[in-house]
Each structure stands twice: as C-alpha cells, then as structure tokens.
C-alpha cells in the first residue's frame, strides 16, 4: 500500500520541482560582480540574486542597487542616484537632490576611510550630462566606489528599459549576506 502512494507522489514532486526551477528563472537572475565599482557594498566575485519583475510592478527608487544592460554584451550593477525630474549635484562630498542635501549612509564608513578627498568629486548634472534634470524615463546611476566607477558621470543617463532588475540579495560569500541598500 505504501509503495503505491510513493509511486503517485514521485511524479507530483518532480512536476513541482520543474515548476519551481522554471518560475525562479523567470522571476530572478543570478549575477557575479565583476570589478570594484560598487565597493564597499559589493565586492568583485560576489554572487547576486536579481529580481527581474520588480520594475514591471513599480518604479525604481533612489538608492536601489540595480542591474542594467550597459550594451549588448555587458550588464552593470550600480546604485540609482537620480530619478526623472531630479536636479543632481555633489558639493564637498555631499549629494544634493533638487537643492536639498540627501544623506548616503551606505558610504559613510568608506568616505571616512578614504585616503583621497573628496571621495566624490564635485559636479552638477548639467556639467556631466548637458541636462539640468534627469529626463523622463531615464535614471542617473553611480557606483559606490566613486573614484573608480564607470557610471552616469561618464556614459550619461540609462533608460528604464535597460533595467534587468533590482539586487535583492547578495548570497555569496555567506559571511557577508546582508546588502546595504541605503534606505
């Protein structure tokens, strides 16, 4: 009698396993960090789980850590700093959005430990992009390692259509499993 139940249960378990694996690949993607542009939040070789559907349901928010298509071959991981309509500037290592100072707590320890000052060089959005504010449908992104990051200061705005998703969790190495999203 028990063998008969087990034979019925095995196909159900296999079907469920296939469904779970299939749904996971539709909803999430795994990425490996390549480079130092997101230090101290993410390090070269960290494995990430990226939520691919979040931006189909909601808009990106300031300080989200995202993955986006930089070109046909490369995907980048950066932090959202500017949203559509924002005027962005840096002055004396401080971020100003629409003329108001905005703290970046995820950078505090790194800025204090940095041997180079300023940690983030002064700039205005107009100086680096030619635009006074972030255009509709675009984002201004930066790496947390402000002195060694290829980001919107170099390549300009990214389109929201370029978004792959939001970094939900860093799952390797295990001793550093929490991700500071700066909220």
What does this structure look like?
This protein is 25% helix and 29% strand. It is elongated. It has helices at 2-27, 54-57, 108-113, 125-129, 152-155, and strands at residues 28-32, 47-51, 65-69, 75-82, 88-91, 94-97, 100-102, 123-124, 138-142, 158-159, 163-172. The longest helix has 26 residues, at 2-27. A hairpin with a 2-residue loop joins strand 5 (88-91) and strand 6. The strands form 2 sheets. The chain has a 7-stranded antiparallel β-sheet with strand order 1-2-11-3-4-9-10. A 4-stranded antiparallel β-sheet has the order 7-6-5-8. The chain is of the alpha+beta class and 183 residues long. Mean pLDDT is 85; it is low at 174-183. It is built from 5 helices and 11 strands; from the N terminus they run H-E-E-H-E-E-E-E-E-H-E-H-E-H-E-E.
Annotation keywords:
183 residues; alpha+beta; 5 helices; 29% strand; elongated
Write the layout of secondary structure elements.
Blueprint: H1 2-27, E1 28-32, E2 47-51, H2 54-57, E3 65-69, E4 75-82, E5 88-91, E6 94-97, E7 100-102, H3 108-113, E8 123-124, H4 125-129, E9 138-142, H5 152-155, E10 158-159, E11 163-172
Antiparallel strand pairs: 1-2, 2-11, 3-4, 3-11, 4-9, 5-6, 5-8, 6-7, 9-10
């Amino acid at each position: 009698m028990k063998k008969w139940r087990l034979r019925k249960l095995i196909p159900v378990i296999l079907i469920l396993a296939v469904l779970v694996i299939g749904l996971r690949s539709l909803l999430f993607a795994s990425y490996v960090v390549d480079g130092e542009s997101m230090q101290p939040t993410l390090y070269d070789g960290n494995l990430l789980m990226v939520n691919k559907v979040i931006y189909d349901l909601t808009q990106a928010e300031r300080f989200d850590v995202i993955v986006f298509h930089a070109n046909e071959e490369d995907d980048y991981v950066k932090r959202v700093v500017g949203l559509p309509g924002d005027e962005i500037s840096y002055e004396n290592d401080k971020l100003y959005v629409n003329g108001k100072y905005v703290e970046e707590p995820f950078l505090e320890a790194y800025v204090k430990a940095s041997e180079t000052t300023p940690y983030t060089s002064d700039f205005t959005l107009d100086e680096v992009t030619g635009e006074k504010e972030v255009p509709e449908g675009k984002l201004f992104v930066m790496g947390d390692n402000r002195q060694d990051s290829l980001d919107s200061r170099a390549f300009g705005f990214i389109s929201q259509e370029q978004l792959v998703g939001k970094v939900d969790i860093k799952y390797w190495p295990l001793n550093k499993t929490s991700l500071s999203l700066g909220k």
